[in-house]
Amino acid sequence: MDLKQDLVSNLADVSSLRDFGGCYIVEGRYLLKPAKAIGASFVSMVDHGDMSAYKARADEAAIHLPDTRFETVNADFRHAATFSGLEPVDASILFEVLLHQENYSEVVRNVTSTSNKFVCVAQPCLREEWFPLPSSSTLLQFWDEELKDEIRRDSFWPKEERTTTFTSASWMWGHTTSHLIDLFGGYGWSLEHGEVIPNVCGAHWEYPLLVFRAPA
User: Fold this and answer.
1) For 59, 94, 197, 212, which has the most beta carbons within 10 A of its beta carbon?
2) Which helix (H) or strand (E) holds 205?
3) How confident is the model at residue 203 (pLDDT cuts 50, 70, 90)?
4) What is the rounded average pLDDT for all residues in the chain?
């Protein structure tokens, strides 16, 4: 958690931040702590559902950031219309988000279109050696349960109710790190920083911390 927080806090020449989906469990930690570290002028959270715990933490952060504008957008960022009114920010945060989106490529397109400098990504990715070709991904959500149980072993992917249709509450995708790099590259964004944290999510997974830079 500290490494993900530092990934955002250490961005250069950044004064505005937006977190997509950062309310669940962490209640805005990866947005608010970096905002205080850099003295952000604008802080935005986009998520949907109960955001009361985040709002309480944002109110507390505002005491330390009296000149900062805080924005809370309760909306589903799977829908392009959510982005139409968003003010562009220097950096956006996508932590443990893309693996839950059936249309993750469209989410990346919309997030990059409202980000001026950086997008930070962190999530478990399947190890490259499980695939014969680079830049691979697989749709885990509809796999056979026995195979899913094997891939879950020693990871923090929970046992989930069986589903036959997309639901963002479940873990959908097994991306590889190279797939995410190429996905952002397709929108003209380059890898500014990348590191893989070992021994986080079991034998089948690696955990990359990635910073992508906007095209010049």
Assistant:
1) 212
2) strand 205-213
3) very high
4) 96
Instruction: Report the alpha-carbon distance of residue 158 to residue 152 in Å, rounded.
Output: 7
Domain range summary for the chain, segments of one domain joined by +: 2-213
**In DSSP terms, which residues pair with 213 in a beta bridge?**
118, 190
In Å, what is the CA distance from 199 to each residue of 21, 124, 208?
Answer: 25, 11, 11
* CA separation for the pair 88, 26 (Å, rounded): 24
Distance CA(111)–CA(20), nearest Å, equals 9
CATH tag, 2-213: 3.40.50.150
Sign of CA pseudo-dihedral 166, 139, 76, 188: negative
159 token code pair: 């046992």
- ∠ CA 9-12-65, rounded to 5°: 50
User: Which residue type, as a one-letter code, is found at position 73?
Assistant: V
Angle in degrees, CA 143, 148, 150, rounded to 5: 145
